[in-house]
Amino acid sequence: MKNPNYDIIVFGATSFVGKIICQYLCEHAKNESFTWALAGRSKEKLTTLQAELGEAGAHLPLLVVDANDSAGLIAMCNQTKVILTTVGPYDLYGEPVVKACVETGTDYCDLTGEAHWIKKMLDKYESQAQTSGSRIVHCTGFDSIPSDLGVFHLQQAAKAAFGEHCPNVKLRIKNMRGSASGGTIATALNIAKLVRTDPAVKKVLVNPYALCPENHGFKTRQQKDGIYYDDTFNAWYGPFFMAGINTRIVHRSNALSQHAYGTDFKYNEGVLTGRGWKAKAKARSIHWGLMSFYLGASLGPIRALMQKFFLPKPGEGPSPKAQLKGFYDFRFVGTTDTQQQIITKVYGDRDPGYGSTAQIIGQAALCMAQDVKPTVKGGFWTPATLMGKALIERLNQHTGVSFEVLSTETQKEEKS
Ligand SMILES: NC(=O)c1ccc[n+]([C@@H]2O[C@H](COP(=O)([O-])OP(=O)(O)OC[C@H]3O[C@@H](n4cnc5c(N)ncnc54)[C@H](OP(=O)(O)O)[C@@H]3O)[C@@H](O)[C@H]2O)c1
Questions:
Q1: Please, what is the end-to-end C-alpha distance for the chain in angstroms?
Q2: Is pTM, for the whole model, over 0.85?
Q3: Ligand 1 pocket by C-beta < 6 Å: which residues?
Q4: Above 90 in pLDDT, residue 134?
Q5: Is 121 inside a domain boundary?
Q6: Containing domain of residue 387, as a range?
């Protein structure tokens, strides 16, 4: 019988994002009592991080564990309720951690945005997690919590206001400032390479329902990436670079919640660029920019040049000043079968992928350790289906991420 010493172990504590998560948990420890430890493969890096964390980190236990050491991973999992891992790209280093959690019945959350890897983990470990009681939740950072909880929040508000759910929901990014770290870039480059070399990966990435259980029964065609005009905001929009993973997590949430958003649920995400021909050109440049990045990154020599000269390396990322200046402002628009419309807002302070992600995954791990009842069954959940309201409350109360209803009337213009 497991008798964990800790609520959370942060594995990959010394990664670029791991350090920011540890800083956030040190800050948050003033508001909530929990036990936690830092883990990583390098004793030296862990000791340096502990010193950087100052007094708040001085008494935190340090665990030296390598992701290739299965016995070490099992020993680590046996000491904690939840493993929060940043050891990525997950497709390269993540599987042994999932395996150890599933074998030991340990809860797990991560920052992957790699749909093909999640599919692989589902196929290999889902039934074992259901048996061992391990609750596995992928995508508990900027991808895909604002989208997944944003849709969940909108659907709850629609049911309260209109007595019905919204079979049509769209997310429009009104404004956002942020940049990528070396780890995120390494992940994107690995995906681009695999799309060219592995047809099975491509098959997963083009299927909007790839992460839904086999018997999901969804047949509705989803909107393809491109440039479109949005008649709620009277503005052009282009593709959002995280939509590929976010939309798949949202559809999985719908499937796992007995189609709470409807069997013909439609969902898409886009970045608003404004009105007029300049805005249309900007939307087009977002689309072409993304296509060029993935095309270039899929070609070995170009990928090597991009890595060498243009892109951040593993361990590098936006400066603390840039992280503080970052933010995102999301608008969700839902329409019911009776044409009632609801508009909601999800706002996050700080850089989306780092400052905001640290707050989000920190609170998700705490929610799993403190709020999710031990009787909730094991398996591969989504943030919305496992934590829903409890995590929204935590984020509203303890972080710069907020969820708000802007309007619940049948109206087209934007409220704020
Ligand atoms: N979802 C989101 O919103 C979001 C946001 C940010 C990042 N991410 C993802 O999070 C991951 C980390 O990003 P990052 O920029 O922080 O990356 P990073 O700085 O390159 O860190 C990678 C981490 O993996 C560790 N690692 C590699 N191999 C290991 C092994 N064999 N055993 C133990 N640890 C090992 C590294 O250890 P050392 O410290 O010892 O080198 C490092 O801590 C990436 O997959 C990225 O895509 C997602």
A1: 53
A2: yes
A3: 12, 14-18, 40-42, 45, 66-68, 86-90, 93, 111, 113, 141-143, 181-184, 187, 314-315, 317, 353, 357
A4: yes
A5: yes
A6: 6-142+356-397
